[in-house]
Amino acid sequence: TKDIYWAEKGNGAFLNDTKIHVSDLDISQKCFFELNLSMKNLLDNLQKLSPLIKRFYRIRILGSSALTLCQIASGSMEAFINLRRSNRLVDVAAGLLILKEAGGNISTLDGSEIDDILSINVKFPFIASNARLEPFLKEKLVNLKK
């Protein structure tokens, strides 16, 4: 598409030359979500996620965590639930900065900041969203840690 997402810390996030910001939709509105689930424990995770999935308007699976973070940053998607332990900080660092500069949030499932993960060898699941969805998602995802 020749689109370029980029950000500069403290100066915002951009799509080409246009400043971008996350959407302000909440769960009562038609939100787009992305899920990334491992085949291991798939049925168990789907069962645990079912109350949450029922609230989604649309779910898609793109396959690129960094691009998905950029789409949340630009407001074309509202949240990403990545339960696979396949991403390292170096895999999502650019998308992380773009999302944060656009007003989005990203954390591990237990609420820890992704920035606290300094080792490039640590693989982690995470959730990313606009600010209005973050509390709702964190509350609902507590069941996955049990």
TrEMBL record:
Lineage summary: unclassified sequences, metagenomes, ecological metagenomes
GO MF terms, alphabetically ordered: inositol monophosphate 1-phosphatase activity; metal ion binding
Biological-process GO terms, alphabetical: inositol metabolic process; phosphatidylinositol phosphate biosynthetic process; signal transduction
Protein species of origin: marine sediment metagenome
Pfam families: Inositol_P
Protein name, as recorded: Inositol monophosphatase
Cofactor(s), by name: Mg(2+)
Keyword field: Hydrolase, Magnesium, Metal-binding
PROSITE patterns: IMP_2 (PS00630)
